[in-house]
Every structure is written in structure tokens, then in C-alpha cells.
UniProtKB/TrEMBL annotation:
Transmembrane segments: none
Annotated HTH lysR-type domain residues: 7-62
PROSITE patterns referenced in this protein's UniProt entry, alphabetically: HTH_LYSR
Protein family membership: Belongs to the LysR transcriptional regulatory family.
Keywords noted in UniProt: DNA-binding, Transcription, Transcription regulation
Protein name, UniProt field: Transcriptional regulator, LysR family
UniProt keyword DNA-binding present: yes
GO MF term set: DNA-binding transcription factor activity; sequence-specific DNA binding
Domain of life: Bacteria
GO BP annotations listed: DNA-templated transcription
Organism of derivation: Methylorubrum salsuginis
């Protein structure tokens, strides 16, 4: 049986190797950089192999370090999962759960309710949310998981598609009074459309029929919340998630146009760095997947998994 210190040093090495940085690993571990560096040196001396190459500018794994990192990561994750499972059996999932959420207002509308309900049913889990405005970087931002509307470029991440949110085209009654009501996607070429770029192609589907149209307008904007503000002021048509502006439609502030044509839906993905997840993460993923899958017919099988 390995000495407990060996397991602790193994976990320290995995954190350093994962982040390729002593300072970042020390921050996550809550220990001084000097102490962490000393423990890794003692560990290397004990096994008689150099696992890390250190320079003033960068830290890299040796060939021995690469091979050991793959094995040690699995062992550390399995040990952590076993510990979490025992704790979960005793008092349910617990600990800090850090979740990256997208800036998309429609997705946030759904997630706020889901996260609130999860928190109510899991009193020992503390939740910290970070709104992302760019590509997912779970390592750098130290999040346990991310909910995103874009497929991450990093192929080592585990990506699961859990929903597709419907989108439509909306405008204020004042705009429609001035510009008229479009009856088909092609009519949008004669309208002032709020888009991120000039022009932008919108693709529509209706009972197997497809249509693509280039739209443009006076105001370009890549922030959905600002687009909504401009649309409410009568400056043009805009595309939005149906749930995000449900209250505006119910109040009459916005109206949906060409409702029989559907825009490309917004996919929602759950992203993690590993298949071996602590109880708090697994519990949230199961809960969120069940709730989000009710919104669409999206398949729950992983879209892409890391090799190995």
C-alpha cells in the first residue's frame, strides 16, 4: 500500500502538470509556491526520475513526466471521486461548484431557474457562477464545468449537447407600423435588421422547406441585451431566443414576425475536462441535463469525448 504522502505528492504533481505552472497550481491548492516546488523536488528525488523541466520562462513535462501524468491523473481523479462518493452518501453532494455560463440572455433565463432549484435541493453545495464572453477555458478559469452555446475548440474536453433553444424574429409594434410586417424570409431584405455584422445570413426552416436571406440594418451590435433595447425602441427587427423575450411578447412590447419560419436553434452544451467527476459536478450535470432536455429533442449522447 502506498504511503499517504506519496498520494498527496502525486496529487500535487498532477495539479502542477495540468496547469504547467507552479504559481497557478499553488493558488488553486492554497499553498506557497516555494513549498509546492520543494514537495515536487522531494517527490522526484524519491522516485529517481525528473518529471518536470523548469526554466525561468516555462515549465514542461519530461517524457517520464508525460507518461506518469496520464497514469497519475486517473488515480487522483478516481481517489477524489471515491472520497466524494463517500461524503455524498453521508450528507449529499457538497463543496464549491464553479460553473461558467454563457452571456446569451436566453440561455441565462433557463439556467437561472435550474441553478436556483438545484441550490434549493442541495444545501451543502455552494455555487459560484462566471459569465463567459469568449471560448471556454476551464483550466485557466478553474471552473468545474461550463454551459456554453459554442462547441469548444479544445479537443481534449468532454462535450455533451443537452438542448436546442428555439429562436424567432421580433420587432416592436411601432416599427411594424412604420415599415410593415414581413410575410416571408425574403421580405427581410427590405427591412432594418439589428445584426452583429453587415450583412448577416439568416437560415430559416418551415416543414422541410429552407430559405436563406442576407439581412442588414442601420445599427450593428453583437450584444443581445442591446439588440433588445434597440428593438423595443423601434429601431428594427432582431433575432432572439423565444424564452428570453417571452415577457416582452406577453406585454405587447414585442411581436413575433413570420412565426411559421424557424431560425437555426441555439445549441446548449455542458463541458468538462474529465469523465471522472466529483459528486457535486455529476449531481448538477444530471439535474441540469434532465431540465434542459425537456426544452428540445436534443440527443443526450456526448457530441465529442476525449480519447482514452
Amino acid at each position: 500500500m502506498p504511503h499517504p504522502q506519496v498520494l498527496r505528492d502525486m496529487a500535487l504533481f498532477v495539479e502542477v502538470a495540468k496547469r504547467r505552472s507552479f504559481s497557478q497550481a499553488a493558488l488553486v491548492l492554497g499553498m506557497p509556491v516555494s513549498s509546492l516546488s520543494r514537495r515536487i523536488t522531494v517527490f522526484e528525488t524519491a522516485i529517481g526520475l525528473r518529471l518536470l523541466d523548469r526554466t525561468t520562462r516555462r515549465l514542461t513535462l519530461t517524457s517520464y513526466g508525460e507518461a506518469y501524468f496520464a497514469q497519475a491523473t486517473r488515480l487522483v481523479e478516481e481517489a477524489q471521486r471515491a472520497y466524494d462518493d463517500i461524503m455524498a452518501e453521508a450528507k449529499g453532494p457538497s463543496g464549491l461548484l464553479k460553473i461558467a455560463v454563457p452571456a446569451d440572455r436566453g440561455v441565462q433565463e433557463h439556467l437561472s431557474t435550474i441553478i436556483s432549484d438545484f441550490a434549493s435541493g442541495n444545501e451543502h453545495v455552494r455555487l459560484q457562477l462566471g459569465v463567459g464572453h469568449g471560448p471556454v477555458d476551464l483550466m485557466e478559469d478553474r471552473h468545474d464545468l461550463a454551459l456554453t452555446v459554442e462547441t469548444p475548440r479544445e479537443t481534449s474536453l468532454i462535450v455533451r449537447k443537452v438542448a436546442e433553444l428555439a429562436n424567432g424574429v421580433f420587432a416592436a409594434p411601432s416599427y411594424l407600423e412604420d415599415w410593415g410586417r414581413p410575410m416571408s424570409p425574403q421580405d427581410l431584405t427590405d427591412h432594418n435588421v439589428l445584426v452583429a455584422g453587415q450583412p448577416t445570413n439568416w437560415s430559416f426552416v418551415r416543414r422541410g422547406e429552407t430559405a436563406s436571406v442576407a439581412v442588414s440594418g442601420q445599427i450593428g451590435c453583437n450584444a443581445p441585451s442591446l439588440m433588445r433595447t434597440f428593438a423595443l425602441a423601434g429601431h428594427g427587427l432582431f433575432a432572439a431566443n423565444l424564452s428570453a423575450i417571452r415577457a416582452d411578447v406577453a406585454s405587447g412590447a414585442l411581436e413575433q414576425v413570420i412565426p411559421d419560419w424557424t431560425l437555426q436553434p441555439t445549441p446548449v452544451y455542458i463541458v468538462t475536462t474529465s469523465r471522472l467527476l466529483p459528486a457535486k459536478v455529476r449531481s448538477f450535470i444530471d439535474f441540469a441535463t434532465r431540465r434542459l432536455s425537456l426544452l428540445s429533442d436534443a440527443a443526450e449522447a456526448p457530441v465529442r469525448e476525449a480519447a482514452g
